[in-house]
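Entry type: protein chain
Record version: 2
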Amino acid sequence: MRRNTRLADIVITLLLLLTQAAAVMAADPLAGFTVWPGKTTDDVKKVWTVTFSTPLAQNSVNSSSIYVTNTNNLRVSSKLTLASDKCSVTVAPISSYKSGEYRLYITGGIKSPEGVKLVEQVMMPFTVSDPLGGQVPTSPNEKPSYILDVQSTVGEYVTNFTVNTDIGVYRVDVNSTKLSYLGDNKFSGGIFGLSAGDIVTVKGYDNSNRLLETYKYVVN
């Protein structure tokens, strides 16, 4: 399994009209948002770059003026970084996105150094489709060689794991729990107290109890 994660930013260009009349038009936050065409990415750490036609006031770039929400309309913690030329802002998730639908909002809280607000508030929907189903390899080359597949099923009390491995793996642990060997290079076991979105550590060992690989997995 191989993750092809690229940080190829999609640039969103917005215009600031530097006229006093335009500033008045943009002052009403209830005026609504213009919905832009949606985007799709398989990068769970996707960084969006929002580019403006004029420099921004640094103090206007915050979690109230630019933010991301999920399908439940809850805000997703993001890191906003204003470029040195103050004409673009990158929006990066603090934690990996889960597969699903999201919305990126750019509001009238954005201002130029002269205090002129953004004329048009914009909402861009985007979809995150994780081709690895939440599996995040942590090997140096991000290509797992021994832990081939991890699956989880979240129950009311116990989350069950099934791990398929290379033939050289003799033992698999999820966090501190040793999984049972089922045969045919497959291991299984359950862990109490986990929820969807939790990150667990999967480790594979050889017959000498030597650690072969460590793998991060997002429970889903």
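Comment: Confidence is low (pLDDT under 50) at residues 1-11, 17-30, 137-143.
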